[in-house]
Amino acid sequence: MIAVFDSGVGGLSVLRHLRTELPEQDLLYAADQAWCPYGPKPANELRARIHRVVQALLETHPDELVVACNTASTLALGELRERHRDLPIVGMEPAVKPAAAQTDTGAIGVLATATTAASERLARLVDRFGRGVDVHVAVPEGLVELVEAGRGDSPDADALLRPILEPWRAARVDAVVLGCTHYPFARASIERVAGPDVAVVDPAPAVARQAVRVLPSSARGPGRTCFLTTGDPAELRRIAALLVPEGWVTGAEYGRLAL
Q1: DSSP labels for 140-193?
Q2: Active-site option among 36, 56, 180, 228
Q3: What is the number of domains present in the chain?
Q4: Which range (28-42, 64-78, 187-201, 216-230) has the least confidence?
Q5: By CB atoms within 10 Å of each CB, which of 66, 166, 215, 235 scores lowest?
Q6: Do 127 and 215 have their domain in common?
Q7: Does 189 lie in the same domain as 120?
Q8: Is the pTM here over 0.85, yes or no?
């Protein structure tokens, strides 16, 4: 069984690729919606919360953990791997490298949460892979909340993104990195505002492939999907029905993640 963890519903953007790659694998999705969004919260509080959630997930005895949250990966991925050395742990990383490799104009944009945008992790990626490339970084404040409400593709999302993406168009940005797992669910709005000549780079498919590569060969399951949340299971079910294929929702179990 693979446990997938995010602050909210954003990690479903990774879960859907995992299900495609591993149709017969059991998947457990945990959403810390009581604390969502993570991005604006103090780092020390978030680290403690992340370890608490992961400890609760370890009680389900997963074969692998996917931290499908850029903020959680930025703050705690190294610590999690150090504490749980016997468990394969896969995290998120802003896709600066592929975006920098494919740009024709020499300008790329990174949409990220506040924590990821200000992190040394992102700075190192830009320094390593973005040399010679003009890298624009912005925090679309409120976009996570719109996705959590099922309105990632909406006029509200368009209006929120316009002050960021229209100046990027003027700066000839031709590739936009999705530096938060919530943002793929706003992809239609991003593409609409950014324009047809801008590539949107989503790391979720690559993260799912990496999860497949490191999954122990003995891990098997009948393909069940279970959703847990620190918030309201009925609300998670409602939003999940908007974001993932219907069969996953109708055939899945929903419950509370008790911390």
Answers
A1: -TTHHHHHHTT-SSSHHHHHHHHHHHHHHHHTT--EEEEESTTGGGGHHHHHHH
A2: 180
A3: 2
A4: 216-230
A5: 166
A6: no
A7: yes
A8: yes
The DSSP output letter for 224 is -
Share the mean pLDDT of the chain. Answer: 94
Element spanning 60, H or E = none
Boundary (domain end) residue, out of 186, 202, 218:
202
Active site residue 36: no
- Find the helix or strand (DSSP H, E) in which 18 lies: helix 12-21
Amino acid at 197: D
Q: Are strands 107-112 and 175-179 parallel, antiparallel or unpaired?
A: parallel
195 plus 146 within the same structural domain:
yes
Rounded distance, CA 259 to CA 256, Å?
A: 9
Q: Range of 126's domain?
A: 96-202
pLDDT above 70 covers what percent of the chain?
97
Answer yes or no: do 53 and 142 share one domain.
no
180 in catalytic set: yes
33 with 112, same domain: the answer is no
Backbone φ, ψ for residue 54 (5° rounding):
-60, -40
Nearest alpha-carbon partner for 10 in 67, 49, 63, 59? 67
Q: Do residues 145 and 211 make contact, with C-beta atoms less than 8 angstroms apart?
A: no
Which of the residues 69, 90, 96, 178 is marked catalytic? 69
Max Cα–Cα distance, the chain, nearest Å = 52
